[in-house]
């Protein structure tokens, strides 16, 4: 018998979760995980590459590090930066900071010198926990270039608030002279243990738990402030909406410095005594093997990962018996992807969602029991939150409406406009950026910058980013409409459209195509397809064939359209230059 053979239906699973949590209690993250550990002490929480950690083991480890942080002088409310991939240490450090009332600042581990210095400075980080290296990035060398002597002097005069650095040596190196994460735990004293108990007792659920820097699909990142209460309510809502069975095991390669891996996976699974299988890097063959070996019941991917996983599973095979849900979200999906998921992985359920860092995680979701067509034409309806919901909002944590991007006037259902959102899961603003906060949150509504439609039944459909749209001859063009059409071509693996400058029309479309096989389609054929089904101003002027690895993406797999547009401009300029 496989794990899913005895899995109850979604409605029954929600009833079981509601019975387990009959009333909402305001907790800090540390208090919540302590409660989960008391219930599920010997169950695995983190299943790592080398060993697993039970709830009890993880809480003991995090408490040891927390006492070390206190001994190192970290005060309640101070910000501590983390450059850490999906190692078990990420979870231990994250919970340690929650224990002492400090704020975690998880940093994109792909950032280099200039960007890293910006985040460390802008976030007012007083300490940093960093890996020594990952792939081709040596973080200690990067720190050398930013603040020489950081091993003993911290940030010095360059980053005066950065007092100390602790290193997680995950890569082999001869370098010494720095304090390690193990050294941090060894700093603990009886006095710091006593102070830790005091801080745990009077922790504030309304205090800031995280500053999550946006992934930057359109420019420089901003620090989104989240509270313990926001994270926990949203995570519960995710478990409730996706109807987690007891002990759900979630495998993912999404970084936990982003809300997708952190809230939707790590924190959400703790409500059912579940476990995460966090992968440090995305390797489809390794991911499938780990899912089989550890009996994962949910696979979580963004569409670019999903397509590679499907391709690999078809080549190597995959034992499908344990998969309850395949959660494919975080970007635009090609129309055929759901049939491919169904035929390849045979999940009982499939879900997709919509959300952002500013809303803590997803706020709408296709329910597991929704009809299949909802996966094709929407990103779901507002997530039910059960006991975690806001009664004044009908039991959800966020509500949406569409407004005109030009005038701000409310639009009726079915009319495309900018999504604006309000509710208890919505951030109060960006850290140390009052102007950006005021420009984004107006009259209590956060302007998402996303263009979409809300149908009469309340289902949301994302169409694209305002900054990704362009105007051709004064007419607004939303790339998704063109992309969805071209993606149906059998020789197209993925189509992406960006606006490029044009002397006559202002901007025109450039269709960037990743071919599905060795032989790409004819450019003229694709333009003819567009011309027969789209208004003239929507038909791209240019076609570029590119490799999948040429598409710049965020760590969550979303194409960075502003970088892709620059790449398109460069290639078009090179092609038109005289020989």
Detailed description of the structure:
With 579 residues, the protein is an alpha/beta fold. The strands form 9 sheets. A 5-stranded parallel sheet has the order 4-3-5-8-9, with helices on both faces. Strands 13-12-14-15-16 form a 5-stranded parallel sheet, with helices on both faces. Strands 20, 21, 22, 23 and 24 form a 5-stranded antiparallel sheet that branches. It is globular and about 75 Å long.
DSSP helix fraction: 25-40%
Global structural class: alpha/beta
Radius of gyration: 24 Å
Assembly level: single chain
How many β-strands, per DSSP?
29
Please report the number of helical segments. Answer: 19
Shape: globular
Major β-sheet strand ordering: 4-3-5-8-9
Distance between the termini: 67 Å
- Uncertain runs are none
Tell me what portion of residues adopts beta-strand conformation.
Answer: 15-25%
Q: What average pLDDT do the residues reach?
A: 93
Summarize the main sheet: 5 strands, parallel
């Amino acid at each position: 018998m496989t794990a899913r053979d005895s899995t109850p239906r979604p409605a029954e699973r929600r009833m079981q979760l509601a019975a387990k949590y009959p009333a909402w209690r305001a907790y800090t993250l540390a208090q919540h995980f302590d409660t989960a550990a008391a219930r599920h002490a010997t169950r695995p929480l983190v299943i790592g590459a080398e060993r697993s950690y039970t709830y009890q083991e993880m809480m003991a480890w995090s408490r040891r590090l927390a006492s070390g942080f206190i001994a190192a002088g970290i005060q309640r409310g101070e910000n501590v930066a983390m450059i850490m991939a999906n190692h078990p240490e990420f979870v231990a450090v994250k919970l340690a900071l929650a224990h002492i009332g400090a704020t975690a600042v998880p940093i994109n581990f792909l950032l280099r010198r200039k960007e890293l210095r910006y985040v460390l400075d802008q976030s007012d980080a007083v300490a940093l926990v960093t890996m020594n290296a990952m792939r081709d990035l040596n973080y200690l060398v990067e720190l050398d270039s930013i603040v020489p002597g950081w091993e003993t002097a911290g940030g010095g005069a360059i980053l005066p608030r950065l007092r100390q650095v602790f290193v997680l040596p995950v890569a082999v190196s001869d370098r010494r002279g720095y304090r390690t994460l193990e050294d941090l735990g060894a700093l603990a004293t009886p006095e710091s243990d006593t102070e830790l108990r005091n801080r745990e007792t009077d922790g504030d659920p309304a205090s800031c738990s995280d500053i999550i820097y946006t992934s930057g699909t359109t420019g420089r990142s901003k620090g989104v402030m989240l509270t313990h209460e926001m994270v926990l309510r949203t995570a519960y809502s995710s478990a409730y909406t996706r109807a987690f069975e007891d002990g759900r095991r979630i495998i993912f390669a999404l970084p936990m410095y982003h809300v997708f891996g952190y809230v939707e996976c790590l924190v959400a699974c703790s409500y059912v005594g579940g476990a995460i299988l966090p992968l440090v890097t995305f390797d489809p063959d390794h991911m499938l093997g780990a899912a089989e070996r550890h009996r994962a019941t949910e696979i979580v991917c963004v569409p670019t990962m999903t397509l590679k996983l499907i391709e690999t599973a078809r080549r190597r095979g995959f034992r499908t018996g344990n998969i309850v849900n395949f959660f494919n979200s975080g970007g635009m999906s090609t129309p055929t992807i759901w049939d491919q998921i169904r035929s390849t992985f045979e999940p009982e359920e499939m879900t997709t969602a919509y959300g952002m860092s500013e809303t803590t995680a997803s706020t709408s979701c296709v329910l597991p029991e929704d009809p299949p067509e909802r996966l094709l034409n929407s990103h779901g309806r507002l997530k039910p939150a059960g006991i975690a919901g806001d009664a004044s909002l009908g039991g959800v944590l966020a509500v949406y409406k569409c407004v005109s991007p030009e005038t701000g006037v409310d639009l009726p259902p079915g009319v495309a406009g900018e999504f604006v959102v309000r509710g208890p899961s919505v951030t109060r603003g960006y850290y140390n950026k009052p102007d950006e906060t005021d420009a984004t949150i107006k009259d209590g509504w956060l302007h998402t910058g996303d263009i979409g439609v809300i149908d009469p039944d309340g289902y949301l459909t994302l169409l694209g980013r305002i900054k990704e749209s362009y105007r051709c001859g004064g007419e607004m063009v939303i790339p998704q409409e063109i992309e969805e059409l071209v993606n149906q071509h059998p020789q197209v693996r993925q189509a992406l459209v960006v606006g490029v400058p044009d002397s006559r029309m202002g901007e025109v479309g450039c269709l960037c195509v990743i071919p599905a096989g060795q032989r790409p389609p004819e450019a003229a054929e694709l333009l003819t397809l567009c011309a027969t089904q789209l208004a003239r101003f929507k038909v791209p002027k240019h076609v570029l064939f590119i490799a999948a690895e040429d598409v710049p993406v965020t760590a969550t797999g979303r194409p960075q359209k502003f970088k892709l547009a620059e790449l398109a401009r460069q290639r078009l300029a090179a092609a038109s230059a005289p020989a």
